[in-house]
Specification:
five-stranded antiparallel β-sheet, 59% helix, 15% strand, elongated, alpha+beta
């Protein structure tokens, strides 16, 4: 009977205490969230309930498993497993708590900030810091797990003795990885590119969707994803349309006939822009920028608050101006002037004057 009661008491007691503490902590967090709804920290900390319960349960079992008299021949192995579970659960809990604190800090900052570019910068830094913390905690947890094995302690001493050689080899082997790692930190704190920035890389326009310590994801306008190493942005030139001020100036070019009424076209452009909600009203214009023997080049200019709006403004101007020219001034559209070659006009007459061979009778020598 004692062999059944002891294990049930130890395991059941540990589970009851774990559930009770988990419920109490969750209840306290919900009450704190209800009292302070403006602070998202308490709601985010509730995500750490499961790792907290795992830490409590594994620590209770680690301290009392010997009294349960289970697996008496494998007591050391059971203790080793519980120790590993406890270390992993602690690492999981630290990562969840750190993520909650970081996300809550960013949410409070973003809700009160007015500068969208600065918000994107902080978001980029926060996401990279969160990933770096997760990596550090994971490495420390793995190292702590390895040190729980007696055989690994001696191996660690030999590794430390040859740390110089291993460091050189690892540095050469992981040169590209380390370069991307430092490039990611440089991007995070150098304000070169941020999450949400509109960029042009390798001839592709898109928005930065994700930045990690090793790679960066750009979402193009047609919903493709371009994954690039972060070292690209520290070693090659690229366009960042959102750095500083997101406002942009767009141009639309028309190739038209010399008879185009430029003044009327300028007035029509102003009407089109006034009806376009994406135009921010800062500037506009229409000028003739070039002329060839057959056409003129007319440039329409307009402004908008960001890259998305300037694309829409350009499309609206291009479509409505061409439609207006087609309806009101079709002669202004480019034409290809053709004329008949001088020699071809006389060719039919010569062909008509030339007798056909069948109309010629036989000559004097014909029989």
């Amino acid at each position: 009977m004692d062999s059944v009661v002891r294990p049930l008491g130890v395991v059941g007691g540990s589970l009851i205490v774990t559930l009770a503490v988990g419920w109490a902590v969750d209840h306290a967090l919900r009450r704190a969230d209800a009292r302070h709804p403006e602070t998202p920290l308490w709601q985010l900390l509730r995500r750490a309930r499961l790792p907290l319960q795992l830490v409590i349960c594994s620590s209770l079992l680690r301290g009392s498993y010997k009294q349960a008299h289970l697996a008496r021949g494998h007591t050391q192995a059971v203790g080793q497993v519980l120790t590993l579970v406890l270390i992993g659960a602690c690492a999981w809990l630290v990562v969840r708590v750190a993520a909650a604190i970081v996300e809550a800090s960013y949410s409070r900052y973003a809700s009160g900030a007015q500068d969208a570019a600065r918000v994107r910068r902080v978001r980029t830094q926060v996401s990279l810091i969160q990933r770096a913390v997760s990596v550090v905690v994971g490495v420390v947890a793995v190292a702590a797990m390895l040190l729980t094995f007696p055989a690994m302690r001696g191996f660690g001493a030999s590794v430390l003795a040859s740390a110089g050689l291993i460091g050189i080899v690892a540095g050469i082997a992981a040169q590209s990885t380390l370069g991307n790692l430092f490039a990611g930190l440089q991007i995070a704190f150098g304000d070169m590119v941020r999450i949400g920035d509109a960029v042009v890389v390798e001839g592709e326009w898109g928005t930065v969707e994700e930045i990690t310590l090793t790679y960066l994801v750009v979402r193009t306008w047609d919903e493709r994803r371009i994954t690039m190493p972060v070292s690209y942005f520290t070693s090659k030139p690229f366009e960042n349309w959102s750095r500083g001020d997101a406002r942009m100036t767009g141009t639309v070019y028309f190739h038209l006939d010399h008879t185009t009424p430029v003044d009327l076209m300028r007035a029509r452009l102003q009407e089109v822009l006034k009806e376009c909600p994406q135009w921010d009203g800062r500037a506009w214009g229409l000028v003739v920028t070039d002329a060839t023997p057959t056409t003129i080049q007319v440039r329409a200019l307009a402004t908008a608050k960001d890259a998305d709006d300037i694309w829409t403004v350009r499309c609206v101007v291009r479509e409505q101006m061409i439609d207006w020219l087609r309806r009101e001034h079709p002669y202004a559209l480019p034409r290809i002037n053709t004329a008949q070659a001088p020699g071809l006009a006389e060719a039919p007459e010569r062909e008509q004057a030339t007798p056909d061979a069948s109309d010629i009778g036989p000559g004097p020598g014909a029989r």
